[in-house]
Amino acid sequence: MHVLIHSPNGYPFTLRSLVKNDSGILGEFFESLSPQTRSKFGPHPLDREYAKYVICKNIDVDNVSRFIIVTETQVVGYFIVDFNEYPNEGSRYSSYGIELDFALDPVFAPCIHDNYQGQGLASLGLDALLRYFDKSKIRSLVLMGGTQEPNLLARNLYKKFGFVEIGEFYTDYNRLNNVDMRLVR
Ligand SMILES: CC(C)(COP(=O)(O)OP(=O)(O)OC[C@H]1O[C@@H](n2cnc3c(N)ncnc32)[C@H](O)[C@@H]1OP(=O)(O)O)[C@@H](O)C(=O)NCCC(=O)NCCS
Q1: Candidates 33, 127, 143, 157: which one to mutate for ligand 1, based on the most atoms within 8 Å of Cβ?
Q2: Which pTM was predicted?
Q3: Domains observed in the chain
């Protein structure tokens, strides 16, 4: 996919699928993320090596769709749509009475560059992604690891797009409540 998006303040960005050659700019993006952002978004190691030797190396075989929002020079947003089995999500949702099939109900995780958060970029990106997914077999998007209860920006983003809060769970490592949210299409 390749979509031009205009931020509310008029700047043009492109939302597109990640490709092998993106390892450099993706690694720079990961390494630029602040501790605050890392504390809310930690799906995998966020460094250059991981971008190059794991993500971009396995791009065609890892069963994950990844999308980036880019300016002419840098990555400012990153979306993961992962079709692999997530046993923790599977059992939590099962406890809510929902049986996930990750081929149809992939897990979803977004991250926007610190300098661009709260400016409408994730909203524009998610809107374009959901339209792109119209032609796909995707039945729902399941938030990877839920979202931290105090992360109001994320929760508001998800609510705005129709994600529903399904349940809550506590994690020891950050001593926080997390909210499971899912968007059924
Ligand atoms: C969460 C995140 C992906 C949202 O992306 P974003 O581009 O900053 O979000 P948007 O600017 O599109 O805002 C989405 C909605 O959040 C709400 N919002 C915006 N700023 C807010 C703020 N400071 N506090 C609370 N809610 C806010 C608004 O409802 C907004 O929609 P609206 O402007 O149409 O009303 C991004 O901030 C981010 O990467 N944060 C750090 C990592 C993270 O939390 N990832 C998600 C883990 S679950």
Answers
A1: 157
A2: 0.97
A3: 2-184 (3.40.630.30)
